[in-house]
Write a structure and sequence with these properties.
Blueprint lengths: L2 H16 L38 H25 L13 H12 L3 E2 H8 L3 H13 L3 E5 L4 E5 L6 H10 L2 H12 L5 H8 L3 H13 L4 E5 L2 E5 L2 H11 L2
Antiparallel strand pairs: 1-3, 2-3, 4-5
Length: 242
């Protein structure tokens, strides 16, 4: 409701008050001494209901203006919050949400804490915008044992690519996979020697890669070798070369 509508409503109410025939009924005052007070038992105990149209115009005016004021406050709050139906076509019109989506595009596989650092947005606000982006199909979420990973949902990334990108965000696993791409079927001690890590560290990371089928483990007696499947190797060649 605009200010112009409020003025029209106010003018109508004023005209109603000054229109002949709409004034309140005339009251006559007489002395109470002319009639003795009635006994308490004769006074009705239940009040009589009065229809709204029989109320004095002054009271009606107060009720109407009070409702109008409450309506205006509600409209102002509604407008201040910028409420509207969020759809896939307008979800990125919100500036903060658009920045979150851009950060996910630039960092596929990023997790919640990393996204908070990248965008400098409070976690509560960030979760709200991520939920809106997920509900409207703009992003997809990949969950592992440790965290949630976010990707643009436009058919850009296959499930294998999502898993590869997730592990490439870890600096240690990225180095390990880089060695395996250059030296297929390398063993644990060989990788540990090239990177300067302990054998236990290599084993721990290899178990994580095996769970997500980024590598397969081949054992021959006490010798353990790690092999990258062909579909994963294609992804690694694309991402490690950039």
């Amino acid at each position: 409701m605009t200010l112009w509508h409020v003025r029209i409503l106010f003018l109508i109410l004023v005209l109603a008050l000054i229109t002949p025939g709409t004034a309140a009924q005339e009251y006559h005052v007489r002395s109470a001494y002319a009639s003795p007070p009635q006994p308490l038992s004769s006074i009705p105990s239940i009040p009589e209901e009065i229809p709204v149209w029989e109320l004095p115009l002054g009271i009606l005016f107060i009720l109407v203006t009070g409702c109008t004021a409450e309506l205006l406050v509600s409209i102002k709050i509604w407008a201040a919050l910028g409420y509207r139906r969020v759809t896939r076509s307008n979800v990125l019109a919100q500036v903060v949400r658009s920045s979150v989506f851009s950060a996910i595009q630039k960092n596929p596989g990023i997790h919640l804490q990393g996204l908070a650092r990248e965008t400098r947005i409070h976690l509560g606000t960030l979760r709200h915008h991520l939920n809106m982006l997920t509900l409207t199909g703009k992003i997809t979420v990949c969950q592992d044992a440790a965290s949630l990973r976010f990707y643009e949902n436009s058919g850009t990334y296959t499930e294998t690519q999502q898993m590869v990108l997730k592990h490439l965000r870890n600096a240690t696993r990225k180095q390990i996979l880089g060695v395996l791409v250059k030296q297929p079927s390398a063993g644990r001690d060989e990788i540990a020697g090239l990177l300067g890590f302990t054998g236990a560290t290599i084993t721990w990371h290899m178990k994580l890669l095996e769970v997500d089928r980024i590598i397969t483990i081949q054992r021959s007696g006490r010798i353990v070798r790690y092999v990258i499947p062909d579909n994963v190797n294609c992804c690694l060649n694309d991402y490690l070369s950039t």
